[in-house]
Each structure stands twice: as structure tokens, then as C-alpha cells.
Amino acid sequence: MTRKLKSGLGRSTADQIFVRGHDLTEEIIGKVSLGDFAFLELMARLPTPQESVMFNAVVVTLVEHGLTPSTIAARMTYFGAPEALQAAVAAGLLGMGDRFGGSIEQAARILQEASPGDDLQATARRIVQDYQARKEIIPGLGHPIHKPADPRTARLFALAAENGFAGRHVKLMQHLSTEASAAYGRALPVNATGAIAAIAAEMGIPWRITRGLAVMARAIGLVAHVQEEMEDPMAAEIWARAEDEASR
Question: Does residue 91 lie within any of the structural domains?
């Protein structure tokens, strides 16, 4: 027998629209923020006040990062296809891989797959040793610019403590930083993606979805970069300089 196709996200009648069982016009529009609405879509319920603070803090952290490869890709795509803003944003989102944003997913997976009954410090040491043996970078630790600490991490962890989300996942992430710093002989603080991974785990967001937090938030920043490119273009200069300098 063919399975009946069904989605619990949204449905419409002639005069009503429902999202996760909530009437869009009566219960959501004008009453629910964009961040809370995103939480509703992902978690099938509206957030508590504490969850609202943390979820919004996490996605706000991810919106803007300056001239990164993804924003440059968006600007260059807009330069080539100014009729398609959506293509420029999509081009930027395609760069959300393991190096930029995707490390949230990697770190969240480590935290969520760790046995809940294990000693956190011992677990952290074992994870670090495993990554060290494989000569792989531990996701969620270290930053090329923010040294000795990532200011975003301090703020996010402070909010997590204030709102009841500083549990075992946050503690394990902090233990990973301590153990990795000792093992590698240099400071490897928890970066923003590591903090977001830990907080997302505390909130019960599956690790497979956590990269999507970066995708959702960064789309806003990419639209802003395209807008700036419209008003004060730099893509043509980037192209001209890259072609000139690469051909010397």
C-alpha cells in the first residue's frame, strides 16, 4: 500500500493558515518574533521565555561575520547576475561547509554522542586523544583572530548559565578546551561555533539540524551584503585585482 503523504508543518484552508497547529494570523503574526517562529518550526512548539532568549542569542550570533568567503561569493554572484538576488544569497549559503558554520554540526555531534553516564573530564580527554591520533582539528575550539578567548563564547555561556542551559554539554565543551589546550601545548578556547553547539545540545536540538541554524541566520547577513553591494559595489574591484595579481 502506498504511504499517505503528510506534513505537520503547515496547511491552509480557504480563510486560514496553520503552522504547527497555530493559526498564523490570529496566534503568530504580530505576536511571535522571527527567532521564536524558527524555534516553533524546528521543535513543534513555541519556546519558553528562557529558550527564547537562548535561541535568539544563538542565531543573532551567526548573522554577520564581515567579508568571509561566503559573503564574497554572494557579492560576486550578484555582480554576474544582478537580476537574481536569491542566486547571490544561495551562492553564499553553499559555502556553509565544515570550515564555515558546519563545525557547529561536528561539535554538536561529539557532545550529543558522548555517553551521558561517563565522567566528563575523562570523556573529554578520550575525545582529544582520538582527534590527536587522527591528526584532525577538534571542531568548536580555537580561533585565528579571537585570542586568548572568543568574546561571543563568554556572552553565550553567561546567558546559558542565567537561563538554565549550562548543563553537561556545556561542561563537556569546556572540558574539551581544557584537555585540548594541555595536549597541544597552546590555548584552544571554545569558539562561537563550539558554544552554539553546546547550547543547541542543551536545548535538545538534534546535531543533524545544527548546521541549519547557521544557514538560517547567515541568509539574513547575506541579503545585507547584497544590499551593500548594490549601494557601494566592490565585486568588480575584487575581480579586477584578483585577475591582475594572479596573472603576474
Answer: no
